[in-house]
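User:
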Amino acid sequence: MAAAAAPPQHQQAWWPGRMGAAFGPSFLCLVCLIYFIQGFRSFVWTAVSYQMKDMMKLSPSTSQFLVSLAYFPWSIKPIYGILSDCIPIKQRKRIPYLIISSCLSLLPWLILGLSQTLRTSADMLTALLIVQNLGSAMADVVIDAMVAEAVRSAGPEFAGDLQSLSWSSMAVGGILGNLLGGYALSNLPFHAIYVVFSALPFFQLVSCMFVEDSPKGYQSAIDEHKYVDSQSAVTAFSGKGSSETLGYEGTRRRKGTRKINKRRPMSKQAEANEKHNVSNNSSPPLSLRSAFFSLCTAFKQPTILRPMAWFFFSNVTIPNISTVMFYYQTEELHLEASFIGTARVIGWFSLIFGTYTYNRYFKRKKLRNILVFPGLLMPVLP
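Assistant: Predicted structure:
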């Protein structure tokens, strides 16, 4: 009697083990570190809030305005994704931008920690915080793109694993950041907290050196941008048949390309010269224009437009009063920094619980059915 069919290999192996085998330890470490830093940012931003209130003596409205201005780079995250996709640096689209973002995240905290003059100036403090958030937002976009590409290459069975790992790392960072932030405020000056936190962007910068960002596929991406640019003006605003037309024409074009390559074999030197010429003749505006038309085509789809509209109105209609609430908690309720940090930990534990629940019970269920329950609970929650 034939033996029973063995379960898939990815179900037999231990979860961290199969993740490491599928994506590589260096890539997983980079993903965990970046998301951990995103959560651990509460460690240093609590110090920023206390500095604005106690040292700079800013009013709640002024502090709220400066913090909202400092977080503006997070509102334009799609721009970083377009730049990373359309303007590669040395034929690489991810790691160079991660290196740039790590430097932008590292330098402002070092400057704030070492210069008292800049640290006590509202204008310079806001400017440096904007630069720091620019680096953090760019790193968030780039690592999201790398996660999506890695999942696409590994297969659909890993669709929710990397996301669960990412959110779990962020939750762990948030828990430690809030717990240690209150302790640090009681034992360290503000400038020391800034310098200590700058070690994490430095580790992020070093970790980028161990992750490969292969330039393979760069030439085909340039050719695809050229073709899409010639077709997108017709299909982006036509309202029908855009995806089918592009898919059919792209397939026909690739078949024609393979036939031409079979008829005209090229030497290695000629192929290298051809790649060099095409790379020099390809201009960034061409790729940016193709990306713009692709976005227009995507926004016409109801499955994308409706969730985007929901996120837009949910953020517009709910005011951000986090800094004002911080003043109320410290000035009116007289809560200590350690208590505020401990209270915020509850939210991060909820994130871990939600991540585990989704990965354990809901990962293979329809997204529409999953979103019904949060949509019903959110209006009744305070």
